[in-house]
Amino acid sequence: MPEVTAHTVKSFDEDIAQLRAVISRMGGLCETQIADAVDALISRNIDAARVVIEADKRLDQLEAEAEVLAVRIIALRAPLASDLREIVAALKIAGVLERIGDYAKNIAKRTIVVAQSQPVGPAVIIPEMARIVVEIIRDTMDAFVDRDAVKAVGLLSRDQQVDEFYNSLFRSLLTFMMENPHYITPSTHLLFVAKNLERIGDHATSVAEMVHFSVTGQRPAERPKNDFASTVYSPE
Amino acid sequence: MNTNPAPNAAIGHNHVPKMTARNVNVFYGQKQAIKDVSIDVSPEHVTAFIGPSGCGKSTFLRCLNRMNDTVDGARVEGRIELDGQDIYAPVMDVVQLRARVGMVFQKPNPFPKSIYENVAYGPRIHGLARAKADMDNIVESALRRAGLWDEVKDRLGESGTAMSGGQQQRLCIARAIAVDPEVILMDEPCSALDPIATARIEELIDELRGRYAIVIVTHNMQQAARVSQRTAFFHLGTLVEYDETPAIFTNPQQTRTKDYITGRYG
What we know:
By secondary structure, chain A is mainly α. Chain A is about 75% helix and about 0% strand. In chain A, α1 (about 10-40) packs antiparallel against α4. Chain A starts with 9 loop residues before the first helix and ends in a 20-residue tail after the last helix. The mean pLDDT of chain A is about 95. By secondary structure, chain B is α/β, with parallel strands linked by helices. Chain B has helices at about 55-65, 95-100, 115-125, 130-145, 150, 165-180, 195-210, 220-225, 245-250, 255-260; strands at about 20-30, 30-40, 45-50, 75-80, 85, 100-105, 185, 215, 230-235, 240-245. A 6-stranded mixed beta sheet of chain B has the order 6-7-8-3-9-10, sandwiched between helices. Chain B has a 4-stranded antiparallel beta sheet with strand order 2-1-4-5, with helices on one face. In chain B, α3 (about 115-125) runs parallel beside α6 (about 165-180) and α4 crosses α6.
């Protein structure tokens, strides 16, 4: 972990700490939103889904707060080097976390439809997929808080697991729909839910890249991709 | 980050340096002000020297045209070359050297003479103009390049000391340019100026870039970031890091550089 010597002007440190706290809160909220959205989906709880949809507003507010703070720091402190990289990273991470929140909200919206249809078998692997995604976000936020580039790099390949889950779910949902055409509506929604989780995994990974750049000033090497569903023509 | 630096003296390999310094040490009496500094000055870039007070950046700048010769008890060791010529060689004519390596100081210091005479003084003592018309051309061209002509063309006979601070500083730059130097050294040229006058000097530095090798000492890091392409960070008499300016300000390699530019110094 790199040294963090205090600034001569102490209020500069306070500004940065405040911005970091907002980002951390956003990360924590994203974890909760994803977990709650998937719980609501699996337990077919429409009320719980509505709570998730409502709670997304908080993420939007925090993103706006992060933007105001970052712009103020840039204007008033003229940050340089690692400070500048960190503030730019925080600004970008806030945008990504807000987007992750939107995906969680979208899962909750689909829950309202899915809960009113017949249960779809292949959905049982979604909670496990969500668990991995939440874990990636948590570890990424830890890397951000600790300014830990090594940890950030270690996260770059974790997303492959999510991709594999998605590929597998894509195939099984396709097969399921072919065999049960009257399940096409809930199955399609679940496909989007899986896709949302896959996208969240990608976004969380890009946050890990931002953390790496913020800490070291270097972009990490190209990360592995394992999402082949877009090339699948039929489930065979 | 490295903690025991051996900073690059040169950056890139695209051109022959205008000036080179190798293993330069400067002493004021017993006190060593510069320790083993080696650095190349590019002909086509603005090079900024930054660092805290007393780090040696001005002292080192003054070695480049032997201004330290005038300081009692100052002693310079090592080798400094201008186009491959040793500027401390006994055959070097110091007056000629200072015409080739001009200097602009922190406080504008026009002579208590007319604007015209301030600019004409250098070319006259160096015998650069034969007729009055030649001198008029030199004065006009220097004032134009210093971005001052339109403001003063109708009052060339007025005293240089009656101008505003920013104008006086541009007059001093015109005076340095008038003898057609190859290198211009600037020692905190904007520290006595307001932001508007500072911006005009910075714009001027940008216009002069390429025509002259420019070395600027500044306390204002934002200024170094704005006007220079190369930045050298000095600390306690040593050159800590020398690199492309964007690299110094976004991703310095040395902890001491980072701490200084991010406001964590001392």
